[in-house]
Design goal:
7 strands, five-stranded antiparallel β-sheet, two-stranded parallel sheet, alpha+beta, 9 helices
């Protein structure tokens, strides 16, 4: 039977070196070995797999640096400050820069002069034809249409001879507006039994009549003003058609229409200058009354003895063509002032044609027109011609055809115009 051996005696117990150790703040701060932070351990692992790239070489502060606006390099001192140049460097560049600045400023202050110089030396496209072409005159500033009746006549211009190239020279009409755009409609508003939209339509119809009767090239060339007739109600249209068919001194259609006899006068240009005003007012049960007061200025030359009509050969088919017209050909001007009243009756009290114009009354003053001409045409006065059956103007009765500050007279006198 085995006998268990006695265990070896326990070795003598050693003292515990950490028995009296206290892990306080003082112990921690005094430790000589510290644990690495998490970021340090992460970077160490990363650099072990992928070593970092070496840093760029250091550049001394005295190296040459270039600036975008300098051709040559510029040196700096160790502190980065620019090194001063020796006297005399950069003088040529500075002078050239100052001169260039002065030239640019001078050109900006005189753009028109620079443009005229270039046109006179090289023309618009540099070709010999462009160099030989004369410079076109500067445009004339156009006046705005009237917003109220003027208080005085236009100022007197220096006398000039109108030509086909400059038909309005020396005339107040030179600055007047041209064509239908010069007839500006007033702001419409409800008047009497008519609403705002109805009044606006009535004003537009009155303008359409003035354009068709005084600006339409076919009418000016002697044609029948059919567009204007179509705007009139039955009775007014019938009265005007009778005047057109049988003109006389008492019933002359030139009181409403600007028509030149193609045998005696031809429009020199298609433009017509005009100035005036369109107004309206209520008239009780009679409806709306529209007043038109406009002065039309026409430039004309003598008729077919010198110029041929349009290719169609039918007067009034279109504006008369001036073939081979000399730009220096002398023209004359006829100044026609018209005052026309249109009425729109209340359909509840009158038997009317809705949407049609009714002529209430009209007056006309024809400046530079033969006195007593009753053939239904405008017969402008040409100094080198005469018209049979006409009267001589009264030299004691002088009128200014451009003066719109006065009402048209009803005395029937044929006076002498002070200017055209």
């Amino acid at each position: 039977m085995p006998i268990a051996e006695d265990p070896e005696p326990r070795p003598a117990e050693q003292p515990d070196p950490f028995k009296d150790l206290v892990l306080d703040e003082e112990f921690i701060q005094g430790a000589t070995v510290k644990e690495q932070s998490g970021r340090a351990r992460m970077l160490a692992a990363k650099w072990k797999r992928q070593p970092p790239e070496p840093e760029a070489a250091w550049r001394p502060p005295t190296e040459i640096r270039r600036r975008w606006y300098q051709r040559k390099a510029r040196r700096v001192d160790p502190w980065g400050n620019p090194v001063k140049r020796r006297r005399g460097q950069g003088t040529v560049r500075t002078v050239a820069f100052v001169l260039l600045t002065v030239l640019v400023v001078a050109a900006a202050l005189n753009v028109n002069g620079l443009h005229d110089w270039y046109e006179s030396h090289y023309g618009s496209d540099g070709s010999p034809a462009a160099q030989a072409a004369p410079a076109s005159p500067r445009p004339v500033v156009t006046q705005a249409p009237e917003s109220a009746k003027p208080t005085a006549a236009p100022s007197t211009e220096a006398p000039q001879t109108p030509t086909a190239a400059r038909p309005w020279a020396g005339s107040p009409a030179d600055t007047w507006p041209t064509g239908a755009d010069a007839i500006v409609l007033p702001d419409a508003k409800a008047t009497g039994v008519f609403g705002k939209d109805q009044v606006a339509k009535q004003l537009q119809q009155a303008k359409d009549f003035l354009v068709a009767a005084n600006l339409d090239p076919a009418t000016l060339a002697g044609g029948t003003p059919q567009q204007a007739l179509d705007l009139l109600e039955r009775q007014s249209r019938s009265d005007v058609q009778n005047e057109l068919a049988h003109p006389s001194r008492e019933h002359n259609p030139d009181g409403l229409f600007s028509r030149f006899n193609p045998r005696t006068a031809v429009p020199a240009v298609t433009d017509v200058k005009l100035q005036g005003e369109l107004t309206f007012e209520g008239d009780g049960k009679n409806g709306v009354l529209i007043h038109a007061d406009y002065t039309f200025v026409y430039a004309v030359v003598p008729g077919p003895d010198q110029y041929r009509p349009s290719p169609s050969g039918a007067p009034g088919a279109q504006s008369v063509a001036l073939l081979g017209l000399d730009p220096n050909a002398v023209v004359t001007r006829e100044i026609v002032r018209r005052q026309v009243d249109f009425r729109f009756y209340d359909p509840a009290h009158y038997d009317v044609q809705r949407g049609k114009l009714a002529l209430q009354s009209w007056k006309v003053d024809k400046g530079n027109n033969y006195c007593g001409a009753d053939d239904g045409w405008l017969e402008p006065y040409f100094a080198t011609t005469s018209a049979p059956g006409t009267e001589t103007p009264d030299p004691s009765h002088t009128v200014d055809p451009y003066d719109r500050s006065k009402d048209l007279p009803d005395d029937g006198k044929c006076g002498t115009v002070s200017r055209t």
